[in-house]
Amino acid sequence: MSRERKNFSNRQRDGRQEDRRASFGKNDRSASSSERGDKNFDSRDKYEKGDRKFGAPKSFKRPFDKKADQQEKVKGYILKRKLDKLISKPEKETIRLNKYIANSGICSRREADDLISQGLVEVNGKVVTEMGYQVQKTDRVVFDGQGITPEKPVYVLLNKPKGYISTTKDEKARKTVMDLVANASPYRLFPVGRLDRQTTGVILLTNDGHLTKKLTHPSFEMKKIYHVVLDKKLSVEHLQLIRDGIRLEEGLALVDHISFIEGKPKNEVGIEIHIGWNRVVRRIFQRLGYEVESLDRVMFAGLTKKNVKRGHWRILTDLEVNNLKML
After folding, report:
1. Domain 94-148 falls in which CATH fold?
2. Is 196 a catalytic residue?
3. Are the beta carbons of 194 and 292 closer than 8 angstroms?
4. Are 212 and 224 in contact (CB under 8 A)?
5. Residues with Cβ within 8 Å of residue 304, at least 6 apart in sequence
6. Rg (CA), the chain
7. Cα–Cα distance between 237 and 94 in angstroms, integer?
8. Inter-helix orientation angle 209-216/318-326, to 10°
9. CATH number of this structure's domain 223-300, picked from the four choices 3.40.640.10, 3.50.50.60, 3.40.140.10, 3.30.2350.10
10. Bridge partners (DSSP) listed for residue 190
11. Nearest to residue 100, comparing CAs of 88, 91, 109, 92?
Protein backbone atom coordinates (compact mmCIF):
# COMPACT_ATOMS: atom_id res chain seq x y z
CA MET A 1 0.00 0.00 0.00
CA SER A 2 2.71 2.32 0.93
CA ARG A 3 4.52 1.31 -2.24
CA GLU A 4 1.53 2.24 -4.42
CA ARG A 5 1.18 5.61 -2.76
CA LYS A 6 4.84 6.22 -3.35
CA ASN A 7 4.58 5.27 -7.02
CA PHE A 8 1.52 7.47 -7.50
CA SER A 9 3.30 10.35 -5.77
CA ASN A 10 6.27 9.92 -8.06
CA ARG A 11 4.05 9.81 -11.20
CA GLN A 12 2.25 12.97 -10.04
CA ARG A 13 5.52 14.74 -9.42
CA ASP A 14 6.90 13.66 -12.80
CA GLY A 15 3.71 14.88 -14.51
CA ARG A 16 4.01 18.30 -12.96
CA GLN A 17 7.63 18.56 -14.02
CA GLU A 18 6.70 17.65 -17.63
CA ASP A 19 3.93 20.27 -17.61
CA ARG A 20 6.43 22.85 -16.39
CA ARG A 21 8.92 21.85 -19.08
CA ALA A 22 6.23 21.96 -21.76
CA SER A 23 5.03 25.35 -20.56
CA PHE A 24 8.59 26.66 -20.50
CA GLY A 25 9.26 25.42 -24.02
CA LYS A 26 6.10 27.01 -25.33
CA ASN A 27 6.91 30.36 -23.74
CA ASP A 28 10.43 30.16 -25.04
CA ARG A 29 9.25 29.50 -28.61
CA SER A 30 6.81 32.40 -28.38
CA ALA A 31 9.55 34.72 -27.18
CA SER A 32 11.96 33.67 -29.92
CA SER A 33 9.22 34.02 -32.51
CA SER A 34 8.51 37.56 -31.27
CA GLU A 35 12.18 38.37 -31.49
CA ARG A 36 12.34 37.14 -35.08
CA GLY A 37 9.26 39.16 -35.91
CA ASP A 38 10.82 42.31 -34.53
CA LYS A 39 13.86 41.78 -36.70
CA ASN A 40 12.34 40.54 -39.97
CA PHE A 41 8.94 42.23 -40.31
CA ASP A 42 7.90 45.84 -40.87
CA SER A 43 6.11 47.17 -37.82
CA ARG A 44 5.11 50.60 -39.25
CA ASP A 45 1.81 52.16 -38.29
CA LYS A 46 0.09 51.00 -41.44
CA TYR A 47 0.71 47.36 -40.48
CA GLU A 48 -0.24 47.97 -36.87
CA LYS A 49 -3.49 49.51 -38.06
CA GLY A 50 -4.25 46.37 -39.98
CA ASP A 51 -3.98 47.75 -43.53
CA ARG A 52 -2.12 44.64 -44.60
CA LYS A 53 -3.92 42.20 -42.36
CA PHE A 54 -5.89 40.69 -45.21
CA GLY A 55 -3.67 41.68 -48.15
CA ALA A 56 -3.95 44.81 -50.32
CA PRO A 57 -7.09 46.90 -49.76
CA LYS A 58 -9.78 46.23 -52.30
CA SER A 59 -10.91 49.12 -54.50
CA PHE A 60 -14.50 50.10 -54.10
CA LYS A 61 -16.81 52.84 -55.21
CA ARG A 62 -19.32 54.68 -53.23
CA PRO A 63 -22.90 54.13 -54.27
CA PHE A 64 -23.10 57.53 -55.97
CA ASP A 65 -19.84 57.18 -58.02
CA LYS A 66 -21.60 55.38 -60.85
CA LYS A 67 -23.97 58.27 -61.30
CA ALA A 68 -21.10 60.74 -61.19
CA ASP A 69 -19.26 58.80 -63.89
CA GLN A 70 -22.30 58.90 -66.12
CA GLN A 71 -22.59 62.65 -65.63
CA GLU A 72 -18.91 63.11 -66.55
CA LYS A 73 -19.38 61.07 -69.71
CA VAL A 74 -22.41 63.14 -70.72
CA LYS A 75 -20.53 66.38 -70.00
CA GLY A 76 -17.53 65.23 -72.06
CA TYR A 77 -19.80 64.28 -74.95
CA ILE A 78 -21.49 67.70 -74.91
CA LEU A 79 -18.12 69.51 -74.87
CA LYS A 80 -16.89 67.39 -77.76
CA ARG A 81 -20.01 68.25 -79.76
CA LYS A 82 -19.46 71.96 -79.13
CA LEU A 83 -15.79 71.71 -80.10
CA ASP A 84 -16.58 69.83 -83.31
CA LYS A 85 -19.17 72.48 -84.16
CA LEU A 86 -16.67 75.28 -83.64
CA ILE A 87 -14.08 73.52 -85.78
CA SER A 88 -16.50 72.86 -88.61
CA LYS A 89 -17.93 76.39 -88.47
CA PRO A 90 -16.20 78.72 -90.98
CA GLU A 91 -14.23 81.55 -89.38
CA LYS A 92 -15.87 84.91 -89.80
CA GLU A 93 -13.92 87.67 -88.15
CA THR A 94 -15.10 91.16 -88.98
CA ILE A 95 -13.89 94.64 -88.14
CA ARG A 96 -15.39 98.10 -88.52
CA LEU A 97 -14.28 99.77 -91.72
CA ASN A 98 -13.01 102.91 -89.96
CA LYS A 99 -10.85 100.78 -87.63
CA TYR A 100 -9.61 98.79 -90.62
CA ILE A 101 -8.45 102.02 -92.27
CA ALA A 102 -6.95 103.41 -89.06
CA ASN A 103 -4.99 100.18 -88.47
CA SER A 104 -3.41 100.57 -91.90
CA GLY A 105 -1.78 103.79 -90.67
CA ILE A 106 -3.49 106.17 -93.10
CA CYS A 107 -5.36 108.25 -90.53
CA SER A 108 -7.30 108.15 -87.27
CA ARG A 109 -10.74 106.52 -86.91
CA ARG A 110 -12.50 109.89 -86.91
CA GLU A 111 -10.69 110.94 -90.08
CA ALA A 112 -11.52 107.55 -91.59
CA ASP A 113 -15.24 108.26 -90.96
CA ASP A 114 -14.88 111.45 -93.00
CA LEU A 115 -13.19 109.56 -95.85
CA ILE A 116 -15.97 106.96 -95.83
CA SER A 117 -18.76 109.55 -95.80
CA GLN A 118 -17.13 111.32 -98.77
CA GLY A 119 -17.24 108.08 -100.79
CA LEU A 120 -13.46 107.76 -101.04
CA VAL A 121 -13.31 104.16 -99.82
CA GLU A 122 -14.18 101.02 -101.79
CA VAL A 123 -14.77 97.51 -100.49
CA ASN A 124 -14.58 94.71 -103.04
CA GLY A 125 -15.01 97.19 -105.87
CA LYS A 126 -18.03 99.03 -104.40
CA VAL A 127 -18.06 102.46 -102.77
CA VAL A 128 -19.12 102.25 -99.11
CA THR A 129 -20.52 105.28 -97.27
CA GLU A 130 -22.27 103.46 -94.42
CA MET A 131 -20.96 104.25 -90.94
CA GLY A 132 -20.15 101.14 -88.92
CA TYR A 133 -19.77 98.97 -92.02
CA GLN A 134 -18.13 95.63 -91.16
CA VAL A 135 -15.41 94.12 -93.33
CA GLN A 136 -13.64 90.77 -93.24
CA LYS A 137 -9.92 90.10 -93.50
CA THR A 138 -10.44 88.63 -96.95
CA ASP A 139 -12.15 91.78 -98.27
CA ARG A 140 -10.22 94.11 -100.56
CA VAL A 141 -10.32 97.67 -99.29
CA VAL A 142 -9.13 100.49 -101.55
CA PHE A 143 -8.50 104.12 -100.69
CA ASP A 144 -7.32 106.68 -103.21
CA GLY A 145 -6.77 103.88 -105.74
CA GLN A 146 -4.40 102.03 -103.41
CA GLY A 147 -5.18 98.74 -101.67
CA ILE A 148 -4.74 98.82 -97.90
CA THR A 149 -4.42 96.17 -95.17
CA PRO A 150 -5.26 96.39 -91.45
CA GLU A 151 -1.70 95.54 -90.44
CA LYS A 152 0.28 97.69 -88.07
CA PRO A 153 2.46 99.90 -90.28
CA VAL A 154 6.18 99.24 -90.08
CA TYR A 155 8.92 101.53 -91.40
CA VAL A 156 12.46 100.21 -91.86
CA LEU A 157 15.50 102.18 -93.00
CA LEU A 158 18.21 100.07 -94.63
CA ASN A 159 21.76 101.05 -95.56
CA LYS A 160 21.93 98.99 -98.73
CA PRO A 161 25.26 97.42 -99.73
CA LYS A 162 26.40 96.57 -103.26
CA GLY A 163 25.21 93.41 -104.92
CA TYR A 164 21.57 93.54 -103.77
CA ILE A 165 18.62 94.42 -105.97
CA SER A 166 15.66 96.45 -104.68
CA THR A 167 12.82 94.02 -105.34
CA THR A 168 10.86 91.57 -103.21
CA LYS A 169 12.01 88.59 -105.30
CA ASP A 170 14.22 87.90 -108.29
CA GLU A 171 13.68 85.33 -111.05
CA LYS A 172 17.44 84.84 -111.35
CA ALA A 173 17.74 84.05 -107.63
CA ARG A 174 19.97 87.06 -107.02
CA LYS A 175 20.24 88.59 -103.56
CA THR A 176 17.55 91.16 -102.72
CA VAL A 177 17.12 93.78 -100.00
CA MET A 178 14.45 91.52 -98.48
CA ASP A 179 17.21 89.12 -97.44
CA LEU A 180 18.71 91.87 -95.29
CA VAL A 181 15.49 92.82 -93.48
CA ALA A 182 14.01 89.33 -93.08
CA ASN A 183 13.78 89.71 -89.29
CA ALA A 184 12.68 93.35 -89.23
CA SER A 185 8.92 92.74 -89.25
CA PRO A 186 6.31 89.95 -89.03
CA TYR A 187 4.55 91.63 -91.96
CA ARG A 188 5.54 91.66 -95.59
CA LEU A 189 7.53 94.78 -96.46
CA PHE A 190 8.06 96.49 -99.81
CA PRO A 191 10.91 98.78 -100.89
CA VAL A 192 9.97 102.41 -101.49
CA GLY A 193 11.48 103.21 -104.86
CA ARG A 194 14.57 101.44 -106.17
CA LEU A 195 18.33 101.52 -106.06
CA ASP A 196 20.16 99.62 -108.79
CA ARG A 197 22.30 96.66 -107.87
CA GLN A 198 25.61 98.56 -107.63
CA THR A 199 24.18 101.61 -105.83
CA THR A 200 24.47 101.77 -102.05
CA GLY A 201 22.83 103.83 -99.34
CA VAL A 202 19.46 104.75 -97.89
CA ILE A 203 16.37 102.82 -98.89
CA LEU A 204 13.07 102.69 -97.03
CA LEU A 205 10.93 99.54 -96.71
CA THR A 206 7.38 99.53 -95.39
CA ASN A 207 3.95 97.89 -95.57
CA ASP A 208 2.28 101.31 -95.68
CA GLY A 209 1.01 101.40 -99.25
CA HIS A 210 -0.44 104.89 -98.99
CA LEU A 211 2.87 106.39 -97.85
CA THR A 212 4.75 104.41 -100.51
CA LYS A 213 2.60 105.94 -103.22
CA LYS A 214 3.14 109.40 -101.77
CA LEU A 215 6.92 109.07 -101.61
CA THR A 216 7.30 107.64 -105.11
CA HIS A 217 4.77 109.68 -107.08
CA PRO A 218 6.50 112.28 -109.32
CA SER A 219 4.07 115.01 -108.25
CA PHE A 220 5.51 114.98 -104.71
CA GLU A 221 9.06 115.57 -106.02
CA MET A 222 10.75 113.69 -103.18
CA LYS A 223 14.35 114.85 -102.87
CA LYS A 224 17.37 112.55 -102.78
CA ILE A 225 21.06 113.32 -102.23
CA TYR A 226 23.86 111.19 -103.72
CA HIS A 227 27.60 110.99 -103.19
CA VAL A 228 29.12 110.36 -106.62
CA VAL A 229 32.65 109.12 -107.32
CA LEU A 230 33.69 109.47 -111.00
CA ASP A 231 36.46 107.81 -112.97
CA LYS A 232 38.10 111.22 -113.53
CA LYS A 233 37.90 114.80 -112.36
CA LEU A 234 34.74 116.72 -113.21
CA SER A 235 35.48 119.94 -115.08
CA VAL A 236 33.90 123.20 -114.00
CA GLU A 237 32.30 123.53 -117.47
CA HIS A 238 30.59 120.17 -117.15
CA LEU A 239 29.54 121.01 -113.61
CA GLN A 240 27.72 124.05 -114.97
CA LEU A 241 26.15 122.05 -117.81
CA ILE A 242 24.67 119.66 -115.27
CA ARG A 243 23.27 122.58 -113.31
CA ASP A 244 21.61 123.88 -116.46
CA GLY A 245 20.13 120.47 -117.26
CA ILE A 246 21.13 117.48 -119.39
CA ARG A 247 18.92 116.23 -122.18
CA LEU A 248 18.01 112.51 -121.82
CA GLU A 249 15.50 110.23 -123.52
CA GLU A 250 12.71 111.17 -121.10
CA GLY A 251 13.39 114.89 -121.40
CA LEU A 252 15.52 117.53 -119.70
CA ALA A 253 17.09 116.15 -116.53
CA LEU A 254 17.24 119.01 -114.04
CA VAL A 255 19.13 118.64 -110.76
CA ASP A 256 18.26 120.66 -107.67
CA HIS A 257 21.87 121.16 -106.61
CA ILE A 258 25.36 119.90 -107.46
CA SER A 259 28.77 120.80 -106.04
CA PHE A 260 32.23 119.47 -105.25
CA ILE A 261 32.65 117.91 -101.82
CA GLU A 262 34.85 119.94 -99.51
CA GLY A 263 38.10 118.19 -98.69
CA LYS A 264 37.62 115.58 -101.41
CA PRO A 265 39.21 115.20 -104.87
CA LYS A 266 37.48 116.84 -107.83
CA ASN A 267 36.16 113.49 -109.03
CA GLU A 268 33.81 113.36 -106.06
CA VAL A 269 30.62 115.44 -106.10
CA GLY A 270 27.38 115.71 -104.21
CA ILE A 271 24.16 115.91 -106.19
CA GLU A 272 20.59 116.60 -105.05
CA ILE A 273 17.80 115.54 -107.36
CA HIS A 274 14.07 114.80 -107.23
CA ILE A 275 13.68 113.07 -110.62
CA GLY A 276 12.86 109.40 -110.29
CA TRP A 277 13.91 108.21 -113.73
CA ASN A 278 15.72 104.89 -113.98
CA ARG A 279 19.51 105.24 -113.37
CA VAL A 280 19.17 108.99 -113.98
CA VAL A 281 22.32 110.03 -112.06
CA ARG A 282 24.55 107.55 -113.86
CA ARG A 283 23.12 108.55 -117.26
CA ILE A 284 23.67 112.28 -116.63
CA PHE A 285 27.41 111.75 -116.19
CA GLN A 286 27.64 109.17 -118.96
CA ARG A 287 26.19 111.72 -121.37
CA LEU A 288 29.21 113.92 -120.65
CA GLY A 289 31.76 111.09 -120.98
CA TYR A 290 32.18 110.05 -117.34
CA GLU A 291 31.74 106.66 -115.69
CA VAL A 292 30.33 106.47 -112.20
CA GLU A 293 32.61 104.25 -110.09
CA SER A 294 30.61 104.61 -106.89
CA LEU A 295 27.10 105.91 -106.20
CA ASP A 296 25.86 106.21 -102.64
CA ARG A 297 22.49 107.66 -101.63
CA VAL A 298 23.07 109.51 -98.38
CA MET A 299 19.59 111.01 -97.99
CA PHE A 300 16.07 110.10 -99.02
CA ALA A 301 12.95 112.09 -98.03
CA GLY A 302 14.83 113.62 -95.11
CA LEU A 303 16.14 110.25 -93.87
CA THR A 304 19.89 109.65 -93.60
CA LYS A 305 22.03 106.58 -92.94
CA LYS A 306 23.73 108.12 -89.91
CA ASN A 307 24.79 105.47 -87.35
CA VAL A 308 23.55 102.67 -89.61
CA LYS A 309 26.32 100.39 -90.87
CA ARG A 310 26.33 99.08 -94.42
CA GLY A 311 23.97 96.12 -94.68
CA HIS A 312 22.23 97.00 -91.41
CA TRP A 313 18.79 98.48 -90.73
CA ARG A 314 16.78 100.27 -88.06
CA ILE A 315 13.14 101.05 -87.34
CA LEU A 316 12.10 104.66 -87.89
CA THR A 317 11.17 106.72 -84.85
CA ASP A 318 7.65 108.10 -84.41
CA LEU A 319 8.99 111.58 -85.16
CA GLU A 320 10.52 110.44 -88.45
CA VAL A 321 7.28 108.72 -89.46
CA ASN A 322 5.25 111.85 -88.66
CA ASN A 323 7.68 113.96 -90.71
CA LEU A 324 7.25 111.63 -93.69
CA LYS A 325 3.47 111.90 -93.48
CA MET A 326 3.67 115.70 -93.40
CA LEU A 327 5.83 115.96 -96.52
Report:
1. 3.10.290
2. yes
3. no
4. no
5. 202, 298
6. 47
7. 64
8. 50
9. 3.30.2350.10
10. 206
11. 109
Q: Where are the alpha helices (DSSP H) in the chain?
A: 2-40, 45-48, 65-88, 97-103, 109-117, 177-180, 209-216, 236-244, 280-287, 318-326
CATH topology of domain 155-218+310-318: Alpha-Beta Plaits (3.30.70)
Q: Where are the domains of the chain?
A: 94-148, 155-218+310-318, 223-300
Per-residue pLDDT tens over the stretch 41-62: 454 544 444 444 445 455 444 5
Taking the C-alpha atoms of residue 273 and residue 201, their distance in angstroms, rounded to an integer, is 15
Report pLDDT digits (tens) over 220-265. Answer: 889 999 999 999 999 999 999 999 999 999 999 999 999 999 999 9
Amino acid at 78: I
Catalytic position from the list 84, 196, 208, 296: 196
Q: Are strands 292-300 and 200-206 parallel, antiparallel or unpaired?
A: parallel
